[in-house]
Amino acid sequence: MLSHLDKGWKTIQNDGLKVFLIRMKDFSIVKLKRAFRPRDKKNILKWQGIKDEYKGKRIFLIGNGPSLNRMPLYLLKDEYTMCFNRFNLMFERLNFIPDFYVVVDDLVIRDNYKEMNREILPVMKYAFFPDIHPSNLEVTNYIDNRDNVFWYNADKPAFSIDLPKCGINKTVVNAGLQIAAHMGFTEIYLIGVDMTFSDQHVKKITSRNWEAKEDDPNHFDPRYFQKGKKYHNPTVHEMIEKFETAKKFFDKLGVKIYNAGMGGKLEVFPRVEFTSLFIADKQKTEQALDAYSALKKSNISFKYIQEQAKELNGTAFPPLFKTSLEKGAALMPGLIQQYIPIGPFEDTYYFIQRDHLILNNGKK
């Protein structure tokens, strides 16, 4: 009882009395729905079917922080990967499609369910959503009930090994950790979970629910929460606290979690250097680079990009150019609408103009 009072008081402190009362009303409605709704036996059987499917394997959980723009993500080809929310914005810049997809945020679902149904679900092995969000959003009315879609119960905030009961715990990554552990993964690497948020000009619908009024500086792509997109106020200190709880929870289960990202402020999990997790193989690397999604669609090889790209000089951007990793990452937000970034590879970024990519379709 005391725990619930503490949580209620924290909600009032962090989000205000109005939000607390709305959440209590929604919570009560969800409880009533649960009491009178029959169990989804088919969904439960699906969850049982993936229990320990990947026992003893490793997986990379890919957050959406800007540090992703500095990482050689092509190394993840042939690895098990899980992504979240609007990671589909990254698909054209990859040489692989993630295996698993998780969403918890009701605002993200409301805003983006059409692109989720159209662009993400058809290419995922498994995708995971709350059936009823604690805000009383009936997610099943928005997301297609495909064979690869699993519904979880997010009513209780605690961590769980009794899936489909799955606590949200302030960040979609914590839901992803529970799902990964349920599937049997015992070695989990986080990347792009930066825990760094700079100020974004927003309209505060409530103290908890925000609407962006400018492009997004806090994710790998400025379109992520661009102007008009709604999201929840990121409370970093609470997310860090939940990660600390997650570490204790998963340590007891023998599930090892590491932070393999670049930079950022997440120090709860032991850090490992990302590239150290892979064995260098030149032939495999070349094949991986040629598999970039944008290049495959236009039948252009990575070697062609390397040979034709000009060094960037000054402020004039040619149709195809290359630059340093750091400069490329800095240019990304301003150029992503007109250019597709390729890399980084050996500390070099390649940028190819979208129109140029179409015009050169078929060239090797």
Would you write up a description of this structure?
This protein has about 375 residues and is an alpha/beta fold. Helix content is about 35%, strand content about 15%. It has eleven helices and 14 strands. The protein has helices at about 1-15, 15-35, 40-50, 105-120, 170-180, 235-255, 280-290, 295-300, 300-310, 325-335, 355-360; strands at about 60, 80-85, 100, 125-130, 150, 185-190, 200-205, 210, 230, 255-260, 310, 320-325, 340-345, 350-355. Helix 1 crosses helix 2. It is globular and about 65 Å long.
Q: Radius of gyration, Cα only, in angstroms?
A: 21 Å
Write down the oligomeric state: single chain
Task: State the secondary-structure class.
Answer: alpha/beta
Measured as a percent range, the helix fraction is: 25-40%
Order of helices and strands: HHHEEEHEEHEEEEHEHHHEEHEEH
Average pLDDT, all residues = 90
What's the number of helices?
11
Described by strand count, sense and barrel closure, the largest sheet is: 7 strands, parallel
The total domain count is: 3
Beta-strand content estimate: 15-25%
The rough form would be described as globular
What is the number of E strands?
Answer: 14
Largest sheet strand order = 5-4-3-2-1-6-10
The N- to C-terminal Cα distance equals 66 Å
| Model regions low in confidence, pLDDT < 50 over at least 5 residues | none
